[in-house]
Amino acid sequence: MNDLSGKVALVTGGSRGIGAEIARTLARNGAAVGLTYLGAADHADGVAKDIQADGGRALPIQADNADPEAVRAAVEATVAEFGGFDILVNNAGVFPSGPLDEVTLEDVDRILGIHVRAVFAAAQTAARHMSDGGRIINIGSCLIERLPGPGMTLYALSKSALTGLTKGLARDLGPRGITAVVVDPGPTET
Ligand SMILES: NC(=O)c1ccc[n+]([C@@H]2O[C@H](COP(=O)([O-])OP(=O)(O)OC[C@H]3O[C@@H](n4cnc5c(N)ncnc54)[C@H](OP(=O)(O)O)[C@@H]3O)[C@@H](O)[C@H]2O)c1
After folding, report:
1. How many structural domains does the chain have?
2. Site to substitute for ligand 1 among 91, 109, 138, most atoms within 8 A of C-beta
3. Parallel/antiparallel/unpaired status of strands 179-183 and 135-139
4. pTM across the whole model
5. Which of 57, 78, 132, 190 has most Cβ atoms within 10 angstroms of its Cβ?
6. When comparing pLDDT for 2 and 152, which is higher?
7. Mean pLDDT value across the chain
8. Pocket of ligand 1 (CB under 6 A)
9. Which residue's C-alpha comes closest to atom 7 of ligand 1?
10. pLDDT interval class at 137 (50, 70, 90)
11. Quick one: pLDDT band at residue 67, thresholds 50, 70, 90?
12. pLDDT given for residue 2 in this prediction
C-alpha cells in the first residue's frame, strides 16, 4: 500500500516541522517530491539533500502561500521537473494568536490567503495535471473541534474553512478517483 514509486508529490511548507517529515516519508516510499518554503531556503535545501542522499528525488521551491500565483507556479514547476502529478499535500501554515480586538481585517485577509485561498489555488491547478486516482491532503488542526482558550479565532476560522473546501474537492474530483481529505493534527512539537 505504501509503495509510491513513480508518483509525484508536492508538499507546501516542506522545509520544516510536519511538512518536512511528510516530504521525507513520501520520498522514502518512492515518490519524487517538490517542497515549498517561504524563507528558510537552507532548511528546504537540507530536506532535499537528505532525500537525494537516500536515493530519492526532491525539488525545493520558494513559494509564498500568500501569493496564489506562486503556489500555482510551484505545482507547475513540480510537473515540469518530474513529469506528472499525483499527490498534493497542503501543509504550509502559520499560527496567529492574540486578543480579538487587535486582529485587523488585513490579518483576516492574510491568514485566509495563506490557509485557504492558497489551498484552493494549489488544488485547482494540481487537478488539471493530476492523474486519475490522485490524492489531495490538506493539513487542518484539531483546534477546529475545540478551542482550549481565547485568542485563536482567526486560526480556527481559517482551518475550519478547509473542511468545506475539502468536501467540495472530494465531490468535484471523486468521479476521477481523486480523493481529498483533511488531516487535523493535535499539538505537535515542531
Ligand atoms: N505543530 C502543531 O502543533 C500543529 C497542530 C495542528 C496543525 N498544525 C498545522 O500543521 C501545519 C504545519 O505546522 P508546523 O508546526 O509543522 O509548522 P512550522 O514548523 O512552523 O513550519 C511551517 C512550514 O510552513 C512554511 N510556511 C509558513 N508560512 C508560509 C507561507 N506564507 N508560504 C509558504 N510556506 C509557508 C514554512 O516555511 P519556512 O521554513 O520557509 O518558514 C515551514 O515550511 C500547519 O498548517 C499548521 O497549522 C500544526
Report:
1. 1
2. 91
3. parallel
4. 0.98
5. 78
6. 152
7. 97
8. 12-13, 15-19, 36-40, 43, 64-66, 91-94, 114, 139, 141, 185, 187-188, 190
9. 141
10. very high
11. very high
12. 82
Report the share of the chain in percent with pLDDT over 90.
98
Q: 89 C-alpha to center of ligand 1: Å?
A: 12
Question: Long-range contact list for 23-26, CB < 8 A, 24+ apart?
Answer: 23/47, 23/51, 23/58, 24/50, 24/51, 26/87, 26/89
Catalogue the active-site residues.
155
- Say how far apart CA 63 and CA 76 lie, in whole Å: 12
All cell numbers assigned to 183: 488531516
CATH number reported for the structural domain that contains residue 103 in this entry: 3.40.50.720
188 within a domain of the structure (yes/no): no
Atom index in ligand 1 nearest the CA of residue 92 equals: 24
Structural domain including 176 reads 8-183
- In a domain, residue 106? The reply is yes
In a domain, residue 3? The reply is no
Cell of 109: 485577509
